[in-house]
Amino acid sequence: MDPVRFMHPDAIRALFSSALSAMYKQEVPLYGDLLDLVAEVNTQTLAAQPALAERLRSSGDEQRLSVERHGAIRVGTAEELRGLRRLFAVMGMSPVGYYDLSIAAVPVHATAFRPIEAASLRANPFRVFTSLLRLELIEDPQLREQACQLLNARTIFTPGVMAFIDRHERDGGLTDTDAQAFVQEALETFRWHQSATVSAQQYRALHDQHRLIADVVAFRGPHINHLTPRTLDIDRAQAQMRSRGMTPKAVIEGPPPRQCPILLRQTSFKALQEAVTFAGGDGAPGHHTARFGEIEQRGAALTPAGKALYDRLLSQARQALGAAPCADNAEQYAHILNTVFSAFPDDYASLRTHKLAYFSYYVRDATKARGTNLEALIEQGAVGFEPLVYEDFLPVSAAGIFQSNLGDSAKAEAMTQGNQQQLEAALGARVIDETTLYAQAQAQSIASCLHALEIPATSA
Ligand code: OOG
Ligand code: NI
């Protein structure tokens, strides 16, 4: 008998990510325009920078360019979050990192489901930023109770997808046919529902407490709220959004443009106002604002020391600006950010020797190797290094993305402290610490260099 053949989780993830993109393009046609814009900018950038084009070709990143994306959803209960953990596990995605958004008065905390192995990230890096509403932050007890009831009354997973998840957990995988069907069923959880589950009046009450609460509570499921392709030139893409009928958010989140990009820069077109119908006798028409399109440009992953320097400089820049970045001070903010970040070394050699970023090491020329010391091997040209790409998110940037899509007026003080244990209890699992993943990847690359050069691991 033939052994059962399972589809690789990386392949299921690729299938799901492209099916989700197709669905979202249909739901939000402007996202399709964003994809076109990004493809054009990427083509222009590659034509203008042959060295970059060559680097992407040789690393195999060129093909991956058009499939790189992340998405985001927001759920309301522990049960929903736990279900998502099991659903994403089928596609080889694990919860990584803890993000506290209450720092920006958004009543959620979050994790990102993503592949963690280098080979899987290379195969398809699709990730989903997943937020859990913190119901305890709803002040009005009656409204909190009502939200709770609405959430408990809904089921965001189809019976079909649950059956496939069970089968995956029982058998250790899904066959090709099952995987295809699983993807179709899984899409239903992410689909937009034009009819709200609440009356216009209930919607208003939830919305007035916080726009995000209405978005999570008033619908049948956690519709995907954006997808994010990768651009090679985010400044150019941002500048061209308006000519394509998109309203860009005022500033690009993250570090300023640099020779050696670090972490993550992102921007979005602002959420669209969409027609919805409310429950109740007359199915009253109304509107809801939640869904948008985003673009991202990723750079080197930073060590804790590098991240601390980044955080310090970012808050220094914001303090110097004296207000939250917005359309009126965007130019000034860009200027301040550039000036302040001149304190962050901008060449890979310094980033490495100051231990600010993580790197992957590789054998460049084994014939040049003399001795066993890693630094000496690098100097001799025997071993080379390249930055590890940052695969995660940034809390301050995420808060900025949330804010600009919830209406810029929603700026406020931190509501409370993060509570990672609470998120993990809801998730039914610990979140993986992202720093550990980068440190491991770096250590592994060093180990395999030494192995290839036949140097005992203990001597470097
Ligand atoms: C998530 C916002 C965060 C990002 O890229 O930082 C995010 C949301 O609006 O639900 O997606
Ligand atoms: Ni995003």
TrEMBL record:
Instruction: Report the cofactors.
Output: Fe(2+)
Instruction: Tell me yes or no: is Oxidoreductase among this UniProt entry's keywords.
Output: yes
Q: Which UniProt keywords apply?
A: Dioxygenase, Iron, Oxidoreductase
Q: Pfam families per the record?
A: HGLS (PF07063)
UniProt keyword Magnesium, yes or no: no
Q: What is its EC number?
A: 1.13.11.93
Instruction: Describe the family membership recorded for this protein in Swiss-Prot or TrEMBL.
Output: Belongs to the 2-oxoadipate dioxygenase/decarboxylase family.
- Protein known as: 2-oxoadipate dioxygenase/decarboxylase
Originating organism: Pseudomonas parafulva
